[in-house]
Amino acid sequence: MERALLETRELSEMGVFLASQKRRVLRVREACAQGVSKVSYKLALYNLIADKEQSILFCPIFKSASTSWLIALLEMRGEWTPQNTPDDLNAIRKRVYKILMGFTVGEISYQFYNKPSDQDIFYQNRFLVVRHPFERLVSCYRDKFENANKPYYHELHGKRMMRMYRDLGDNPVSRTEVNNLMARADADPDRERVLGNPFANPVGPTFTEFIKYVVFENLNKENAQFLQRLNAGADVGQRKDNIFSGPPTAEVACSYFSQLDTALLYQLTKKYEPDFKLFGYTPNEYLKCSDEYIQP
Questions:
Q1: pLDDT reading at 240 higher than 50
Q2: Which backbone phi and psi does 213 adopt, to 5 degrees?
Q3: What family is this protein classified in (predicted)?
Q4: For the whole model, what pTM was predicted?
Q5: Residue 131: which of 253, 293, 294, 12 has the closest Cα?
Q6: What residues does each domain of the chain span?
């Protein structure tokens, strides 16, 4: 009896989860229809991870649990073991997954919509994981600028980022530094690609048109439910470390944003406006972090 009740509750919770997914996907599609996402298709295709064996198409977003989810997907395939480290990730990814290069937009559309017996089965689970853009930006700053001794990503990209945006790597964040960052990014778009772009940029209109799931990075229960939906909870859950755990980041982010004036915060809000519209986030709680904030 207790087992039956538990199964009924789990089914009910999964129903709530799937209903929330439908609402989010509808929001994304409506926002895209209004022209929120205006980026190149090549960039979007470059970021996709296609796993036919697992029936998964995943768009990893920088600083939105992308490494954790990539490891989870590799675990599901038996390609990741406790002996592996983050230093192995790039090589394993290149070996296991092929980048979707060489496809035109029309070919992608044809594969998803006109061949349901083939491609639709291969890629039933098309998803991305999202995070509040300001938390994502702070996470990027702390991990890639402040934590200069972290070897993995810093060796690949961090040093170049540091040379682009600051003279000394050990100084704390300052208003001047953020102003310089925004000015240089506006003057040279190639610089900006190294940093935390809005979600809409790496995702692009190609993927958002076909998306089926939008998972919120900071909701641990939701991550577990999606793994259950993929029939992979047991495969990933055996890891000793919880890949989706971590301290709340809102307070940490606020401590950084409190050092900026409201004018600069509004500039950042404008920059990440596509994310707010696509996924229903709001900048209000971070605008309040500024010492200059005045209640409207």
A1: no
A2: -135, 135
A3: Belongs to the sulfotransferase 2 family.
A4: 0.72
A5: 253
A6: 2-132+198-237, 134-196+249-287
